[in-house]
Design brief:
By secondary structure, the protein is an alpha/beta fold. It contains seven helices and eight strands; from the N terminus they run H-E-E-E-H-E-H-H-E-E-H-E-H-E-H. The protein has an eight-stranded mixed β-sheet, with helices on both faces. Bound molecules: zinc ion. This is Succinylglutamate desuccinylase/aspartoacylase family protein.
Length: 302
């Protein structure tokens, strides 16, 4: 469960962002990079994507492979480790498609008892995008995940990212260094909540909502994703209280990861919440994965 921002919902300014493909793989990352773990196949792009985000692509950033659009080189997959040789040690999976595109960061396990986001991120870490770079951290707070607790002994990881200041723990600092290093076009953070945002059904909570950062078209993309979720997963199968809505806009005034993405990085980002109220873990994983996929596609990762 998270505690997204209060009541403002004004969209931020539009910004264009450069493509940063392979920036992590080619730069001297501040984190230890392990050996590659093999190559994987490709998936097909679909033609019906609204693609509301069109980042520029700088040909000079192309890898020294063929620029042919028909190139079918498999994506490269690597991993790196945060907090090596500590109890908080956790893996980040990086899949770099053959075709250039935006870089997306996907995070699960900020709160260790929110299994759906951990599993959804783990599944997404195995995806084989045809375009772009996918950086996935399934178990952000590995100690809390191991204990299946909201907090770890260092407290709640999602209270350690004050805007305009250095994150307050070693794990938070290393995660933030990674994010600034990969320079993502979009950041997605998966959560689940005991309740439903804005509903009298069940306990109070933040579920069934997407909370966008105050940057670019994030709020419109969140609304499109909510509509998609309702059409495909909720309407006709669950009470109307379960309809996915757009939550408050996150803009950097709380010490949470997505607030810092909005406030410091000034990037599109989404904190997603599904509800644990009378839902199965399998359903929550399905919903979270579908929301992630839709948001990634909207930002050009496919
Ligand atoms: Zn949470």
């Amino acid at each position: 469960m998270t505690d997204p921002n209060a009541t403002d919902d004004v969209e931020g300014s539009n910004r264009s962002r450069p493509t940063t493909r392979r920036s992590l793989l080619t730069s001297g990352a501040a984190v230890a990079v392990s050996t590659g773990i093999g190559t994987v196949g490709t998936v097909s792009a679909r033609a019906d994507d609204p693609c509301p985000s069109s980042p520029t692509e700088d040909p000079s950033e192309e890898a020294p492979t063929t620029p042919d659009e028909d190139n079918q080189d498999p994506p490269r997959r690597e991993s790196l480790t945060l907090q090596s040789n500590t109890a908080y040690e956790t893996e980040v999976f990086i899949t770099d498609a053959a075709r250039p595109g935006p870089t997306a960061m996907v995070v699960g396990g900020m709160d260790g008892n929110e299994q759906a986001g951990i599993e959804a991120a783990s599944r997404i870490s195995k995806w084989k995008p045809e375009r772009g770079t996918l950086v996935v951290l399934p178990e952000a707070d590995a100690v809390a995940v191991d204990q299946r607790t909201y907090n770890s002994p260092r407290g709640n990881l999602n209270r350690q990212f004050p805007a305009n200041r250095t994150p307050t723990t070693p794990l938070a600092r290393e995660l933030w260094n990674l994010i600034t290093e990969i320079d993502p076009t979009v950041v997605i953070d998966f959560h689940s909540s005991k309740g439903i945002w804005g509903s009298d059904l069940g306990p109070d909570g933040y579920g069934q909502a997407i909370y966008p950062s105050a940057v670019g078209n994030s709020r419109r993309i969140a609304a499109d994703t909510a509509e998609f979720m309702n059409d495909e997963y909720v309407d006709g199968a669950y009470p109307s209280a379960y309809r996915v809505t757009v939550g408050n806009t996150l803009r950097g005034n709380k010490p949470k990861l997505m607030h810092k993405v909005a406030g410091d990085l000034e990037r599109p980002g989404y904190l997603t919440e599904v509800t644990r109220y009378d839902t199965s873990l399998a359903t929550r994983i399905e919903w979270t994965t579908a929301m992630g996929a839709r948001l990634l596609r909207a930002h050009g990762i496919r």
